[in-house]
Amino acid sequence: LKRFLFEAFDCYIALFYLAFFQFDIIRLRSELVSLYTADSIRRVLTETVIPWVVTAATRRASGKKTDDTDTRLQLGKEEYEQFDDYLEMVIQFGYITLFSSAFPLAAALSLVCNVVEILSDSIRLAKVFRRPEPKRAQDIGLWFSILQVLVIMSIFTNCLIISFGSEQIFSFFPQWFKNAKGDPTHHVIRKGSVKFVAAIMMSMEHSLALICVGLWYLMPDAPVWVQNCLERRIWRRTQARKAIEKRDSQ
Fold first, then answer.
1. Where would you tag: which of 106, 153, 154, 235 has the fewest CB atoms within 10 A of its CB?
2. Smallest Cα–Cα separation from 32: which of 109, 111, 86?
3. pLDDT tier, 74 (very low <50, low <70, confident <90, very high otherwise)
């Protein structure tokens, strides 16, 4: 958790400054585009291409020609650590949700980046790192709680961006705004109209929060058919155990 907080602060602080201190949506959007582009290239190079080249060069220099399924070759590789992959996906989820009103195409761009990431990770798992052992897990652990916090924060950040950082409120209520000095294309809120814009922001925030709470209670964690399958499996297991105990007692 501490490392995630550090990484999140490092990744989001500049975006928060542009969005909520300078209220510059154009620069915020361009920053997000550059982050997606540069970060995708960086991850492919540093996580897949460079380690793969180094591993191949080391193997060629040693003169060993063994298949990747060789046990000794697998043991000689670096152990795979899944924390960094989880961290990258959660940080990217924050880009999408926290600033979606400033850059609506972030979700589509993330889809393209994740396709590249899938191909990159498949090469990395097969060629660079030691093949990980499959382990049974109930869920993704603390990461799910972090995603929930990001979703809750996104309600407030997007309402603030729409109300005070973008021109969306101006298109509906132009009488609440005036032209900025030196920039006729940019509008600022009139002195007596801040309370109306704040009221709209709070209305949107409360409405979205109520919708989220309603969906949280109305939508089950697992579909009904999944719950039925789990209950059927438990029932069959119970019946089999009873049958074995009955047979042993005889």
1. 235
2. 109
3. low
Q: What is the DSSP string of 174-212?
A: GGGEEEETTEEEEEEE-GGGHHHHHHHHHHHHHHHHHHH
Q: How far apart are CA 16 and CA 36, in angstroms?
A: 16
**Is residue 28 packed enough to be buried (19+ CB in 10 Å), middle (13-18) or exposed (0-12)?**
buried
Residue in the block written with tokens 């097969």: 126
Pairing state of beta strands 183-189 and 177-180?
Answer: antiparallel
What does the alpha-carbon distance between residue 179 and residue 192 come to, in Å, rounded to a whole number?
15
The yes-or-no verdict on residue 31 having pLDDT over 80 is yes
Hey, which of 133-137, 181-185, 236-240 has the most confident mean pLDDT? 236-240
Beta-carbon contacts of 159 under 8 Å, excluding residues fewer than 6 positions away, are 201, 202, 204, 205, 208
Distance, in Å, from the CA atom of 204 to the CA atom of 9, rounded to the nearest integer, reads: 26
pLDDT at 110: 83
